[in-house]
Structure formats: structure tokens, C-alpha cells
Predict the structure of Putative transcriptional regulator.
Amino acid sequence: MEIKELTRAEEQIMQVLWQLGKGFVKEVIDQLPEPKPAYNTVSTIIRILETKGFIGHNAFGKSHEYYPLITREQYQNFATDKLLNGYFDNSVKRMFSFFVQKEKIDLKEADEIMQLIEKLKDK
């Protein structure tokens, strides 16, 4: 199945469902920051996510309990690949340099990354 890009609102709903594991619309709304969106807004976004193949549901009478069909890791891989290919010519070095230059990575994080690289070299 091809993963599609999520809008900001869709991603926010998915983050909640990934955290909860499953939930009804009201439970999703309870996890969203203030000001809370309207029930109908969240319900509509959830139906769109279902159409896109991101979530499924179990019916309990007229109520539906929703659950993710795509894992957070699957979407993370998709989003990272898109970022890497679209903005850094598929070069991890360019992406890393960008984050270092923008001071998005501090020395401690850079040291941890270097340790990870050393572990990969040992394999």
C-alpha cells in the first residue's frame, strides 16, 4: 500500500491515535490541545484518514472505535524519505549539515550521533 502525505490536522489526529492505540472520536478530542476542535471537524478528518487507508474501525452500534492501520514508524520512514529526497538530494550528510548549521543539533546530540555511526561501522 502506498502511504500518502498527511495534512497537519490529519497528522495531529494520527499522533493521538498512535498514542492511544485505538479510540472513539470523543477520546481523540480529549487528547487534543485547547481550544478543542468541534466533534464534527474531528469526525470528518477521521473519515478522511479512513479513506486514505490510515485507520480502520470497529462498529459498536452507531459508535465507531478507530485504530491505526499505518504505524508511526511506517509514516516516519515515509516522511523522512520524502524530506531527504525532496530537500537534501538523498544525502544524509547534507541533511545533517543543515541541522547543525541551523543549530537544531547541540553538541551532546552530535556526540550521540557520532557514537551511533561508530556502532554501525563495527557491524
The mean pLDDT is 89. The two ends are 32 Å apart (CA to CA). The longest helix spans residues 72-87.
